[in-house]
Amino acid sequence: METNRGNVNSLLHPIEGGSYAVICVGGANGGLNGPAHNLYTRLPLLLEKSNVTVLRIDYREPNHFSECVLDVLAGCSFLKGIGAKAIILV
Questions:
Q1: How far is the C-alpha of 72 from the C-alpha of 47, rounded, in Å?
Q2: What is the pTM (predicted TM-score) of this model?
Q3: Do the Cβ atoms of 10 and 55 come closer than 8 Å?
Q4: Is the CA virtual torsion 59, 1, 81, 19 positive or negative?
Q5: In the chain, N or C terminus with fewer CB closer than 10 Å?
């Protein structure tokens, strides 16, 4: 995702027509794969059956709280722009 503060490395697993979304963030160390043996790589397949779009975000500046918050807000804005009505942060 492109933001006015820099590019946010991310992976989108879209569900056409879905109105629910999940944002997965890598925690203080960043990354796209998540905890628990790369949970975030498996989550999109599990949520696909429930018509849930998944956006995986790798923070621009891991462990810099205010910048991480802005990255998540950018993800929320993007997801709302593609039709998400409800978003869960993981």
A1: 20
A2: 0.93
A3: yes
A4: negative
A5: C
- Report whether 68 contacts 8 (CB < 8 A): no
The whole-angstrom distance between residue 88's C-alpha and the CA centroid of its chain comes to 9
Residues of the chain with pLDDT under 70: none
Task: Phi first, then psi: give them for residue 33, nearest 5 degrees.
Answer: -90, -20
Give the domain ranges of the chain: 2-89
For domain 2-89, say whether CATH 3.40.1390.10 is its number.
no
Instruction: Give residue for tokens 């995986």.
Output: 56
Task: Find out whether 19 and 86 touch, Cβ atoms under 8 Å.
Answer: yes
Structure tokens at 54: 């998944």
The candidate with the shortest Cα–Cα distance to 23, out of 87, 80, 86, is 87
